[in-house]
């Protein structure tokens, strides 16, 4: 899979197919359990084509209820978050409990036959599973359970979370921004695009955001190189992990007795290592950046940034952001951003982590987001403007056949060492193409 038809990025009939064949059978990330902590707490999110109210019932269970009245179909909940015992329709007043049951029908006795079926008029509910506080949902009753769906990628997600001490919480509700361009464009960028750093983000590198590693900066980590490992699974999930190691050495040269977790306080490295398995430490030690995709449209980035984005006295600090790329149309995507902080870190460190994320990779980030969104919009402009068939398909050849298998790499799934490669993007689109089939 080295090319993709350009129509995949601009054609709404392709998006219709994607909703049915890619999104419907998949587990999609909706948010964090902590966003709906108390009974009645809700947030409104998209699940494929449909809007859902993600709401904790009085029984403590989190559900994803279709946000559409079962009488005429009116949109029930118009706020994006809140707390309520009931959802009451604005048209004729049908009322649903926060577990989705229809519990109130005006003029029930005088207006409806005695055998009116309340139970048959409850709100449709998607399957919801909470994993380490991450809420995933699917409409597909036949989808495998979440653990099987995630497969090998779960090991890598767990390692990144365990490296921060295990427990994480979201810094408030997600930021949301609409971006021009198809949902797959930012998603394949997160799957493994190290290639754009030196052009798109040259200004960030020039400011020394990664120390000396990627730029000719002055931040005091001279003599190191970045080596990336790409991990992609047959299900289309992926991680690209970048390691900062001494120039001329290899990943295998890292000292297992002296793990380093860039961006976390060095005085806590031993404690953080103890919270992980030895195999996890071999994945997380010296890892400066890890990003990837939970197929189809959830992405994550864990990265240690330098004080170029903070105050001069700020130490190298790590943040973790989880994002959802929700299709609005074939050519527009709503991006939701959740910043996560480990509860094991002190409040000052957590504030700094959030600040670094907000200043770089957020909707208003000064360094990365503006650069990336500009390119995504330019892709969309040019693809949409072109005559059918003009320009050839989108190319994914970078690094094909050139990566070397990662020796002695601890996690499951095939890992290959290749700092510049579209290995992960190829896996993403291979899975996508297998589900979508021939384009119309
Ligand atoms: S449409 Fe909701 S009560 Fe009639
Ligand atoms: Fe970027």
UniProtKB/TrEMBL annotation:
One of its GO terms (molecular function) is dioxygenase activity. Residues 27-137 form the Rieske domain. Gene3D superfamilies: Naphthalene 1,2-dioxygenase Alpha Subunit, Chain A, domain 1, Rieske [2Fe-2S] iron-sulphur domain. Its EC number is 1.14.13.-. It comes from the Bacteria. InterPro entries: ARHD_Rieske_2Fe_2S, Rieske_2Fe-2S, Rieske_2Fe-2S_sf, Ring_hydroxy_dOase_asu_C_dom, Rng_hydr_dOase-A. Belongs to the bacterial ring-hydroxylating dioxygenase alpha subunit family. This is Aromatic ring-hydroxylating dioxygenase subunit alpha. The lineage of its organism: Bacteria, Bacillati, Actinomycetota, Actinomycetes, Kitasatosporales.
């Amino acid at each position: 899979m080295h090319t993709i038809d350009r129509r995949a990025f601009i054609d709404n009939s392709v998006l219709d197919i994607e909703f049915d064949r890619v999104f419907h059978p998949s587990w999609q990330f909706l948010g964090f359990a902590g966003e709906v902590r108390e009974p009645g707490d809700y947030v409104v999110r998209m699940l494929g084509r449909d809007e859902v109210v993600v709401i904790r019932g009085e029984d403590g269970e989190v559900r994803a209820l279709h946000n559409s009245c079962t009488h005429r179909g009116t949109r029930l909940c118009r706020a994006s978050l809140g707390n309520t015992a009931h959802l009451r329709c604005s048209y004729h007043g049908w009322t649903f409990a926060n577990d989705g049951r229809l519990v109130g029908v005006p003029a029930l006795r005088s207006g409806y036959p005695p055998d009116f079926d309340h139970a048959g008029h409850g709100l449709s509910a998607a399957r919801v599973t909470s994993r380490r506080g991450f809420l995933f949902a699917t409409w597909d009753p036949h989808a495998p359970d979440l653990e099987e769906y995630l497969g090998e990628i779960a090991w890598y997600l767990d390692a990144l979370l365990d490296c921060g001490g295990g427990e994480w919480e979201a810094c408030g509700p997600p930021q949301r921004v609409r971006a021009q361009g198809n949902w797959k464009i930012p998603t394949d960028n997160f799957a493994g695009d190290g290639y754009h750093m030196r052009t798109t983000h040259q200004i960030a590198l020039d400011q020394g955001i990664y120390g000396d590693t990627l730029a000719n900066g002055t931040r005091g980590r001279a003599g190191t190189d970045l080596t990336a490992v790409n991990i992609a699974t047959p299900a289309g999930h992926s991680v690209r992990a970048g390691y900062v190691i001494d120039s001329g050495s290899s990943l295998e040269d890292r000292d297992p007795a002296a793990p380093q977790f860039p961006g976390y306080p060095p005085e806590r490295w031993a404690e953080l290592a103890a919270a992980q398995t030895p195999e996890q430490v071999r994945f997380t030690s010296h890892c400066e950046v890890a990003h990837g995709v939970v197929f189809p449209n959830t992405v994550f980035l864990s990265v240690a940034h330098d004080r170029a984005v903070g105050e001069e006295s700020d130490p190298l600090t790590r943040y973790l952001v989880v994002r959802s790329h929700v299709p609005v149309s074939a050519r527009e995507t709503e991006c939701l951003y959740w910043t996560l902080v480990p509860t094991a870190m002190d409040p000052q460190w957590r504030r700094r982590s959030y600040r670094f994320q907000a200043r770089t990779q957020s909707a208003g980030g000064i360094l990365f987001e503006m650069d990336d969104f500009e390119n995504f919009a330019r892709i969309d402009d040019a693809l949409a403007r072109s005559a059918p068939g003009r320009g050839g398909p989108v190319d994914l050849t970078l690094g094909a056949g050139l990566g070397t298998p990662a020796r002695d790499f601890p996690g499951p799934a095939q890992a290959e060492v290749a700092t510049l490669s579209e290995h992960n993007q190829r896996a993403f689109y291979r899975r996508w193409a297998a589900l979508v089939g021939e384009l119309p």
